[in-house]
Specification:
Layout: H1 2-17, H2 22-35, H3 38-56, H4 62-67, E1 71-76, E2 79-84, H5 85-111, H6 117-142, H7 160-169, H8 176-200, H9 208-226, H10 232-249, H11 255-263, H12 277-301, H13 318-344, H14 356-365, H15 370-380, H16 384-417, H17 422-438
Antiparallel strand pairs: 1-2
Helix pairs in contact: 1-12, 3-7, 3-12, 5-8, 5-11, 5-12, 6-8, 6-13, 7-8, 7-16, 9-10, 10-11, 12-15, 13-14, 13-16, 14-16, 15-16
Length: 439
C-alpha cells in the first residue's frame, strides 16, 4: 500500500511538472486544467452515479452490486486484514479523500478564505446555518423513531464537486465572489461533517486501547511537524499506522485522513506554502482523488434500484421527508438566515456585487448533498431497506436542488453578466480561448 500511495503521489507530481516541446506543453496544460476542473469532476461523478443506479435496477446486472461485497485481504506475515471491496473503498480510499479535504481545510485556514475573521465570518455563519437547520428538520420528521432518528446528519452535507460544477456551467454569468463564497462555505461544511462523523457515527463499539495507540502515533506525527521533517515517507508510514489504529478503535477510519492532514508541514524550505510538503501532497493526490476515489465511491455506494413501492401504502417514509426538506428547504433557509443575521449585526459583510437572491441560490445548490450524504447514510441505519430509501431520497433531492439552483442562479445573474468589470470579462474570455485551443 505504501508503494501504491507513493507511486501515485510521485507519478502525479512528475506529470504535473514535466517539460516537453511547445505542443506538449499545451497538451500538458490542458490535461492539468482538466484534472483540476470541478465541472469535469461533477460530470464524472454524476455519470458514475447513473451507472450504479442503472446496474442496480435490472436483475441481469445485479452482479455489479454484489461484486463490491467480495472480500479482499492484505497479508504480511502473521498480520492480515480482510474487508469487502466496498469497505476498502469506504474505509481506505475515502481516507485519502478525507486527507485531501483536510489539507484543503488547513490551507484555507492558514492562507486562504478562512485565514482571518473578516474573510471567514460570512461562510462560517452560512455553513453553520446550513448544517443546523437541515438536521433540525430531519429530526422533526423522525423524532421518537429509534430506527430512523440517527439519520439527522445526512442532510447536513454539501457536495462541493457537484455544486461548483453546476456554477461552472454558467461561466462568466456568475460573479467570481459567489464561487469564492460557495467554496469557503463548502469547506466549513466539510469540517462540520467530519466532526459529526467522528463523534456520532462510529463504525463499531469504541476500544480505548486502540485510541491510545492512535494518540501516540498522532503525537509522533506532530513531533515530525515541529521538527520540520519534510520527508513524505515518514508521514505515509505513520499515517498507515494511524489509519489502522483508528479503524480498530471504532471511530470511522476516514477520520485518520483528516488528522494526518493536520500534521503535514505547511511551509517549505523557503518558508512559503508553494514549496511545502502539504502543497505537494495536495497537488499530487487531487487528480487521483477526483478521478479514481470519488468515482469508485459513487459506483460502489450509489447503486439502488429505483423502486418506489416503499413510497406507497403508508405514504412517504419519514426518512425521505427528512432528507428532502432538510436538503431542499433547510439548506437555503439556514444559509440565508444566518448570513442575514451576520450581516445585520455587522459580524460579517456581503462581498461586493452579491445580492441576497444570489445567496439564496447558493443555498439551494448547497442542497446537493451527494458524496458526504450518501457516506453518512451508509452509517446511519442498520436496516438495508432504510439505507436504500435514504440513497433514493438523496439522489432525487440532489437532482432537484441542482435544477432549481442553476435556474435561480441563471435568473439572478443575468443582469450581473452584463455588468461585470471589463478585466473580469476579458479574463473569462481568455480562459475560453485557451480551452478551445487545447481541445
Amino acid at each position: 500500500m505504501i508503494g501504491f500511495f507513493n507511486r501515485t503521489f510521485a507519478g502525479n507530481q512528475k506529470f504535473l511538472t514535466m517539460n516537453t516541446n511547445d505542443n506538449g506543453k499545451k497538451t500538458h496544460k490542458g490535461l492539468n486544467a482538466l484534472l483540476h476542473n470541478e465541472a469535469a469532476v461533477g460530470i464524472l461523478l454524476l455519470a458514475c452515479a447513473l451507472v450504479a443506479v442503472a446496474m442496480a435496477s435490472f436483475p441481469e446486472t445485479m452482479w455489479f452490486d454484489k461484486m463490491w461485497n467480495k472480500d479482499g485481504s492484505i497479508t504480511v506475515g502473521d498480520f492480515s486484514i480482510t474487508m469487502s471491496i466496498r469497505h476498502w473503498i469506504n474505509d481506505a480510499l475515502m481516507a485519502i479523500f478525507f486527507f485531501v479535504v483536510g489539507l484543503e481545510i488547513k490551507k484555507e485556514m492558514l492562507i486562504g478564505r478562512l485565514s482571518s475573521l473578516k474573510k471567514s465570518a460570512l461562510p462560517v455563519m452560512a455553513a453553520i446555518g446550513g448544517m443546523i437547520v437541515p438536521a433540525l428538520i430531519f429530526t422533526a420528521f423522525n423524532a421518537g423513531n429509534p430506527e430512523t432518528s440517527g439519520g439527522w446528519g445526512i442532510p447536513m452535507a454539501t457536495d462541493i464537486a457537484f455544486a461548483i460544477g453546476i456554477i461552472s456551467l454558467l461561466g462568466s454569468r456568475v460573479n467570481p465572489g459567489l464561487k469564492v463564497f460557495l467554496t469557503a462555505l463548502a469547506i466549513v461544511d466539510d469540517l462540520g461533517a467530519i466532526i459529526v462523523l467522528a463523534i456520532f457515527y462510529p463504525s463499531h463499539a469504541l476500544h480505548f486501547g486502540w485510541l491510545v495507540m492512535a494518540g501516540i502515533v498522532l503525537v509522533i506525527l506532530f513531533l515530525f511537524n515541529r521538527g520540520k521533517l519534510d520527508n513524505r515517507y515518514f508521514y505515509i508510514i505513520a499515517g498507515l499506522f494511524l489509519w489502522y489504529f483508528i479503524l480498530m478503535s471504532g471511530i470511522h477510519a476516514t477520520v485518520a485522513g483528516v488528522l494526518l492532514a493536520m500534521t503535514i508541514p505547511s511551509k517549505g524550505h523557503s518558508g512559503e506554502y508553494h514549496d511545502s510538503l502539504m502543497h505537494r501532497f495536495e497537488r499530487g493526490l487531487r487528480p487521483f482523488v477526483n478521478f479514481v476515489v470519488i468515482p469508485l465511491f459513487a459506483l460502489a455506494n450509489a447503486g439502488v434500484a429505483l423502486d418506489f413501492s416503499s413510497f406507497s401504502g403508508n405514504g412517504i417514509p419519514t426518512v425521505s421527508l427528512g432528507i428532502f426538506f432538510g436538503l431542499l428547504v433547510g439548506k437555503p433557509v439556514g444559509i440565508l438566515l444566518l448570513s442575514w443575521i451576520g450581516v445585520k449585526f455587522r459580524i460579517a459583510s456581503l462581498p461586493d456585487g452579491i445580492r441576497w437572491s444570489q445567496v439564496a441560490a447558493m443555498g439551494i445548490l448547497g442542497g446537493i448533498g451527494f458524496t458526504m450524504s450518501i457516506f453518512i447514510n451508509s452509517l446511519a441505519f442498520r436496516d438495508p431497506g432504510l439505507t436504500d430509501i435514504g440513497k433514493m431520497s438523496i439522489l432525487l433531492t440532489s437532482a432537484v436542488a441542482a435544477i432549481l439552483g442553476i435556474a435561480m442562479l441563471w435568473l439572478t445573474c443575468r443582469r450581473d453578466s452584463r455588468q461585470l468589470p471589463p478585466e473580469v470579462l476579458e479574463m473569462t474570455n481568455s480562459s475560453k480561448r485557451f480551452f478551445s485551443k487545447t481541445e
